[in-house]
């Protein structure tokens, strides 16, 4: 019969109620009274309907306490605790009407209660939501907080919406957290939880939820037992701790176990528009939005490609731990196809697996060790001084100068000296040469790459842009070939990467050609942009400029590679700038094995992307994430969250090959620049970000310089 009635209709609920009452050994008269009284009961249109249904049913069952005393106890426990029903009014009613009319009066009172609860429940909802917001802002409770009772949130057993919302909030942060619920009345709780099922499923985007009722010793318990009396919800951070401070036996633990869920049915899937935007100028903005919505992961699936963006440091750490000896990078298809068609080796940037590992090991010897870096220090220091001298000269002659132009010359010359060991003619400035053209071509290539990257191979090689791409790459390789030939003709050069590679004979000529070209390309724009951002932040914070200079004088003016690394504040300025403005704003890995991210399973061979921009500004990892505050890096910490806040060069064995060179270039330029000038922004315009494969300033950074 019930099934013929529309679900959730008043009549349907009534029938169900009667069914319950029947089974609870009540007198015939009592059942009749209930039936009658039900007509007057407000089912809580303004509340979540199912939620008032849960309360009502629980309350109705309690109606079997027919004597005055018990009703009072029930009323006190149940209603006064949660709904603030006026006790005296209820007592008056009881006294006036006596026990004969008790049942009818009980339902009248219940109606009042439900009406009163409308506004109270919404208040409660608000307050619990606020508590969660506060917890969100201050970080979720950790073990210590839990033991101090922080993180306990009182919850009305009626608050289905609240409960769902709370679970949702908790799950956003800790998907594998256990949710502990201690409740007022097991009956109503069970009803709510059963009804909640659907809501939870909808909210957290999983298909099936298995709910287990266990006590604090993990023993199964009957959900309909009526022993428990407390109304608390809390989160056990690592699901290892028991609620020792909650009275023994006074709570139930409800473990919400998501059943295994297919990754490809995740509700956090972006549409094709999102996917294209992720390669557009507002990509950083889109990712920040997705992070705010989903906190943990977001999936872009379009044009035959799937990328899962991970936002949580724990997941990123898992990726890093699982990547092994040979991390698999995203496929730079446009470069790979060009090289394969011409029988060139793929080089360290494009290759994967053992081929990559072999080359990377050899290149590491020349670009990563302290010994190698110390050898390049004098050359880069000299180029930094030359660049600042040029600026001083321009300032003295009151010439119009462009910091970006000088920075470009600096970046090309500095990497040129590291790779080739001789002056490549960009600083001191002379006329434009092939390396200027090389940098310009590389820049164009960077900008156009995304168009080709999105196309399938067969379409890509027939696209008009492909011909241009080939021409540009022919030029880039030719320039490197000429530079290598030039190196061979020279009698003497400073220590450099090329001499090391040629002498060791570990790489073939073609491998050297491709890797040197890639390194040159990878270094120029990344370094220019990073220095620009540093200058921008320092111009807004003149006290930091002063601190850099003071630190330099305190360390003693004899600068070497080792004393440079003693300049802690300068280092912190670079770190803080790259946290706020990571030039390469995301990196990718192809995961080799299935990975669990909360309730989702990411299958092996999926591209996983990690956004340094989003992680750097994650409010859960640091306080005041949008402000420039280098001091936060002055105390060393082994904290995982802090580590992943600052990964502008990537992480693991596949981390940027030129990290040490880039850091040295940036630090030396800033040091010389701050020693020479005080500088301020030319206008007060806000400078935002724009993505051109790299994260660059949305407007040119213009400075006013005054000599120190
Ligand atoms: C501030 C400047 C720089 C930034 C922000 C930067 C950033 C990055 C990032 C984020 C990656 C990907 C790392 C990963 O996937 O985990 C990368 C890779 C790479 N970078 Fe840099 N980079 C910079 C300067 C340089 C310089 C100066 C060189 C040249 C010596 C260079 C050469 C490379 C190469 C060859 C790779 C590929 C490494 C591999 O796949 O094994 N980069 N860089």
Automatic annotation (TrEMBL):
Keyword Metal-binding: yes
GO molecular function: metal ion binding; monooxygenase activity
Top-level division of the source organism's lineage: Eukaryota
Residues binding heme, per UniProt: 656
Keywords, ordered alphabetically: Heme, Iron, Metal-binding, Monooxygenase, Oxidoreductase
Required co-factors: heme
PANTHER family, alphabetized: CYTOCHROME P450
Protein family per UniProt: Belongs to the cytochrome P450 family.
Protein name: Cytochrome P450
Source species of the chain: Sinanodonta woodiana (Chinese pond mussel)
Lineage, uppermost ranks: Eukaryota, Metazoa, Spiralia, Lophotrochozoa, Mollusca
């Amino acid at each position: 019969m019930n099934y013929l009635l529309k679900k959730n209709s008043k009549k349907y609920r009534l029938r169900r109620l009667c069914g319950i009452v029947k089974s609870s050994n009540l007198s015939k008269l009592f059942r009749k009274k209930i039936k009658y009284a039900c007509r007057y009961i407000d089912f809580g249109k303004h509340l979540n309907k199912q939620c008032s249904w849960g309360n009502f049913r629980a309350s109705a069952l309690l109606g079997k306490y027919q004597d005055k005393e018990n009703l009072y106890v029930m009323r006190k426990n149940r209603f006064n605790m949660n709904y603030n029903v006026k006790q005296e009014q209820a007592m008056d009613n009881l006294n006036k009407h006596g026990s004969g009319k008790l049942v009818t009066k009980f339902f009248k009172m219940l109606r009042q209660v439900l009406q009163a609860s409308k506004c109270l429940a919404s208040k409660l909802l608000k307050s619990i939501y606020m508590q969660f917001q506060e917890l969100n802002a201050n970080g979720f409770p950790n073990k210590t907080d839990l033991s101090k009772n922080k993180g306990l949130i009182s919850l009305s057993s009626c608050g289905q919406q609240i409960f769902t919302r709370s679970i949702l909030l908790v799950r956003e942060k800790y998907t594998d957290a256990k949710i502990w619920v201690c409740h007022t009345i097991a009956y109503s709780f069970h009803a709510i939880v059963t009804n909640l099922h659907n809501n939870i499923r909808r909210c957290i985007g999983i298909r099936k939820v298995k709910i287990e009722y266990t006590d604090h010793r993990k023993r199964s318990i009957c959900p309909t037992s009526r022993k428990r009396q407390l109304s608390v919800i809390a989160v056990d951070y690592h699901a290892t701790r028991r609620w020792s401070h909650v009275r023994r036996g006074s709570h139930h633990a409800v473990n919400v176990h998501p059943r295994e869920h297919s990754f490809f049915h995740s509700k956090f899937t972006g549409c094709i528009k999102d996917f294209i935007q992720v390669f557009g100028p507002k990509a950083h903005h889109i990712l920040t939005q997705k992070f705010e919505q989903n906190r943990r992961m977001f999936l872009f699936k379009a044009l035959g490609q799937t990328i899962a963006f991970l936002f949580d440091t724990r997941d990123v750490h898992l990726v890093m731990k699982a990547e092994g000896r040979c991390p698999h990078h995203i496929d730079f298809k446009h470069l790979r196809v060009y090289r394969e068609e011409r029988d060139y080796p793929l080089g360290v940037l494009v290759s994967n697996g053992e081929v990559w590992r072999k080359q990377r090991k050899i290149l590491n010897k020349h670009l990563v060790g302290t010994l190698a870096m110390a050898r390049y220090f004098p050359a880069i220091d000299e180029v930094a001084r030359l660049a600042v001298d040029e600026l001083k000269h321009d300032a003295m002659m009151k010439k119009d100068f462009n910091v970006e132009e000088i920075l470009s010359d600096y970046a090309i010359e500095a990497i040129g000296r590291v790779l080739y060991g001789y002056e490549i003619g960009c600083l001191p400035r002379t006329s434009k040469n092939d390396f200027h053209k090389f940098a310009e071509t590389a820049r164009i290539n960077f900008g156009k790459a995304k168009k080709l990257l999105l196309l399938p191979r067969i379409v890509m090689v027939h696209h008009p842009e492909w011909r241009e791409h080939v021409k540009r790459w022919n030029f880039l390789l030719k320039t490197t070939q000429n530079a290598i030939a030039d190196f061979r003709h020279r009698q003497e050069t400073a220590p450099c990467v090329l001499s090391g590679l040629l002498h060791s004979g570990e790489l073939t000529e073609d491998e050297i050609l491709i890797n040197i070209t890639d390194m040159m390309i990878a270094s120029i724009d990344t370094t220019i942009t990073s220095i620009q951002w540093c200058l921008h932040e320092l111009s807004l914070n003149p006290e930091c400029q002063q601190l850099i200079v003071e630190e330099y004088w305190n360390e003693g003016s004899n600068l070497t590679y080792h004393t440079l690394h003693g300049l802690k504040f300068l280092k912190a300025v670079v770190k803080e700038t790259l946290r706020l403005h990571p030039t390469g704003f995301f990196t990718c890995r192809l995961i080799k094995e299935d990975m669990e991210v909360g309730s989702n399973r990411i299958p092996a061979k999926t591209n996983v992307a990690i956004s340094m921009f989003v992680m750097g500004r994650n409010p859960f990892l640091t306080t005041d994430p949008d402000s420039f505050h280098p001091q936060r890096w002055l105390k060393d910490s082994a904290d995982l969250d802090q580590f992943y806040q600052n990964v502008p060069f990537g992480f693991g064995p596949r981390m940027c090959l030129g990290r040490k060179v880039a850091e040295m270039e940036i630090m030396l330029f800033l040091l010389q620049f701050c020693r020479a000038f005080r500088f301020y922004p030319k206008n007060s315009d806000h400078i935002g970000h724009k993505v051109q494969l790299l994260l660059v300033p949305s407007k040119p950074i213009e400075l006013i310089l005054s000599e120190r």
